[in-house]
Amino acid sequence: MRTLKKNKYKEFSEDRLSDFLEFIEKKRGNLTFVEFGAGSGLTLRGIKKKFPSSNIYGFDIHPPCNVRRVIKTDLNQFYFFEYKEILKKADYFLLLDVLEHLNDPMNFLKRLTKYTKKNAVIIISCPNFSSLRMLFAWYRGILPKEHHGYFDETHLHWFSPVSFYDFFRKIGVNNFAMNYLFSKKISKKIVQKIYPRRLCSQFIFIAKI
Questions:
Q1: Under 8 Å CB-to-CB from 172, ≥6 apart: which residues?
Q2: CA distance 88 to 107
Q3: Beta bridge partners of 36
C-alpha cells in the first residue's frame, strides 16, 4: 500500500475559497467545514475570514502551523469512525486536488458518505482528464512527470466530471453542480470559455447528499 510520506503542497497551495464560494449558502450561520488535505491551510483561513462564525477542521499528513484544527493523519489510512463526531456535523467537505493522490479515492468517498448528515455538500476539485493537455500527452506517447501541477508525478488517478456523476448516482446521490476553473489570464480565459470541457485543465464538482 502506497503512503504519502510528506505534504508536498504545504508551501504551494493557495487559498481556493474563490473557486467554490458561489456554492456556499451564505445566509446560514455557524457553518462547519472539513478539508481533507489542508495543504498550506490558506483555504481554511480564508473560510474563517469570510465566515467568522464558522467552524473549521482539517486533516493532513503534515498539518500547517497556521490553523489549529488540522489533525495529523494519512488519508490513505483514515479512520472515519474515530472522527465521526466531526464528520457528522460538517456542512461542507472539501477535497481540493486530493482524490487523484489517494490509493482508492472512490472507496474513500463511499466511506465518507456514510458519515455525512443530510444536505451536507462534498466539494471536489481535480485535474481534468478530458482536457486537451491529456490528449496531447497521449499523442506524444508520454505522460510528463512534474513536481507540481497538472502532471504531478504523485497523481495515481485521473478523473473527468463523468467519473463523479457516475459514482454518486450509483450510491443514490443525484443533486449535483459542476464548474470548470478558468485561467486568471484574460486572453487564455476567453479561449477556455469557448469549449471549457476540453480547454480547462481543472474542474469543480459539487454533490449534495
A1: none
A2: 18
A3: 59
Domain residue limits at 182: 29-208
Q: Say if residue 77 is exposed, middle or buried (CB neighbours under 10 Å; 0-12, 13-18, 19+).
A: exposed
Spatial distance between the Cα atoms of 29 and 52, rounded to a whole number of angstroms:
9
Nearest partner of 115 among 89, 96, 94, judged by Cα: 89
Instruction: Tell me the CATH number at 66.
Output: 3.40.50.150
**Pair type for strands 202-208 and 175-181:** antiparallel
Q: What is the pLDDT of residues 93-134, one digit of tens each?
A: 999 999 999 999 999 999 999 999 999 999 999 999 999 999
Counting Cβ atoms within 10 Å, is residue 43 exposed (0-12), middle (13-18) or buried (19+)? buried
Domains identified in the chain, total number: 1
Mean pLDDT of all residues belonging to the chain? 91
Q: Rounded to two decimals, what is the model's pTM?
A: 0.92
Q: Is residue 107 part of a domain?
A: yes
